[in-house]
């Protein structure tokens, strides 16, 4: 186990403040019981303890659970109880008033938060209990900047009379963690392609389709994707380009070749994803270029599975 990843979480003041505010909004000192699923070093569970939670149950299956145990002891958190297993493996878990889980990735669902919180709502929560976060919205926007496209197409600039097109195609069938500025995007606010009601929606397979009718001629090089998590009413956390900076970034979905579209034409994008603890994360995206009367001018289909070496 390397502690460095957990240091980046602890250093994320925006993330920490949002979860602290959400817990403060729902904890009644001396009464509320809390389960922290995916507790890591124990920060969020300890926040709940400091806010007056009656009991806090911290679930962590990785080696970092050993660190969490020592951190809890150092903080004399006698109302915190470490359970070193994945929450879905826990038999007859103690029922709680609040379940909190910061198991979000750059791709929001990559750490299995959908299945985890569906199980938690069914088996961990008391009637009228609260899940934090309660929902996740996934958002996407076309990228007009050639910056990352140029970076990924280095295969074409190697020279020496070599053709590396096969490797370039594999490289483009991948998703990249990058940061964007709003001026690099067409429609910087983006469009929603998926909304998850956490706890109630147990579908690990997600899909959505969006379209943009262009007001001006534009060249689209790929797509930027981000998310907003609704922690509790009035408190949210976002990885949008214009949101306060966190340790998360946006994702870049490449195109095989840029789409040069004219004013009045339409860009479409369909996205499909599936995540599971056993099989990992699978994502596919298909972009379309539509002309007048929605006549299809071009279509590009990419799939994360094609980006792996055979």
Question: Can you walk through the features of this model?
Answer:
The protein is of the alpha/beta class. It has 2 domains: 4-102, Vaccinia Virus protein VP39 (Rossmann fold, 3-Layer(aba) Sandwich); 136-307, Hnrnp arginine n-methyltransferase1. Helices cover 21% and strands 37% of the residues. It contains 7 helices and 15 strands. The protein has helices at 4-10, 13-26, 43-50, 64-74, 113-123, 147-152, 165-172; strands spanning 33-37, 55-59, 80-83, 96-100, 125-132, 135-143, 176-178, 191-197, 205-213, 218-232, 235-238, 250-261, 266-276, 280-290, 296-303. The strands form 3 sheets. Strands 6, 7, 8, 10, 11 and 12 form a 6-stranded antiparallel sheet that branches. Strand 4, helix 5 (113-123) and strand 5 (125-132) form a beta-alpha-beta unit. The longest helix has 14 residues, at 13-26. The two termini are 28 Å apart. The model has no long low-confidence stretch (mean pLDDT 96).
What characteristics describe this protein?
310 residues, single chain, Rossmann fold, 15 strands, alpha/beta, 5-stranded parallel β-sheet, 6-stranded antiparallel β-sheet
Topology diagram in text:
Elements: H1 4-10, H2 13-26, E1 33-37, H3 43-50, E2 55-59, H4 64-74, E3 80-83, E4 96-100, H5 113-123, E5 125-132, E6 135-143, H6 147-152, H7 165-172, E7 176-178, E8 191-197, E9 205-213, E10 218-232, E11 235-238, E12 250-261, E13 266-276, E14 280-290, E15 296-303
Parallel strand pairs: 1-2, 1-4, 2-3, 4-5
Antiparallel strand pairs: 6-8, 6-10, 7-12, 9-13, 10-11, 10-12, 13-14, 14-15
């Amino acid at each position: 186990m390397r502690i460095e990843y957990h240091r980046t979480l602890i250093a994320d003041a925006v993330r920490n403040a949002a979860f602290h505010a959400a817990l403060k909004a729902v904890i009644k000192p001396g009464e509320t019981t809390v389960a922290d699923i995916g507790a890591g070093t124990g920060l969020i569970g300890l926040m709940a303890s400091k806010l007056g939670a009656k009991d806090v149950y911290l679930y962590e299956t990785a080696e970092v659970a050993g660190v969490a145990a020592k951190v809890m002891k150092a903080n004399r958190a006698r109302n915190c109880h470490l359970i070193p297993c994945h929450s879905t493996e826990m038999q007859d878990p103690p029922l709680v008033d609040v379940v909190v889980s910061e198991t979000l990735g750059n791709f929001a669902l990559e750490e299995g938060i959908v299945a985890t919180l569906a199980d938690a709502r069914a088996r961990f929560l008391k009637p009228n209990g609260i899940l934090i976060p309660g929902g996740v919205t996934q958002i996407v926007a076309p990228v007009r900047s050639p910056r990352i496209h140029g970076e990924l197409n280095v295969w074409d600039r190697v020279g020496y009379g070599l053709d590396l097109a096969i490797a370039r195609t594999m490289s483009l069938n991948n998703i990249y963690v990058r940061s964007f500025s709003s001026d690099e995007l067409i429609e910087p606010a983006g469009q929603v392609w998926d909304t998850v009601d956490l706890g109630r929606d147990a579908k690990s397979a997600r899909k959505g389709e969006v379209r943009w009718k262009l007001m001006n001629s534009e060249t689209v090089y790929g797509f930027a994707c981000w998310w907003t998590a609704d922690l509790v009413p009035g408190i949210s956390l976002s990885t949008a380009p214009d949101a306060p900076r966190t340790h998360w970034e946006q994702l870049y979905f490449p195109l095989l070749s840029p789409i040069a579209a004219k004013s009045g034409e339409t860009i479409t994008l369909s996205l499909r994803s599936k995540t599971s603890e056993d099989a990992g994360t699978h994502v596919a995206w298909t972009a379309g270029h539509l002309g007048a009367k929605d006549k299809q001018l071009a279509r590009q289909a990419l799939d994360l599975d094609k980006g792996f070496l055979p």
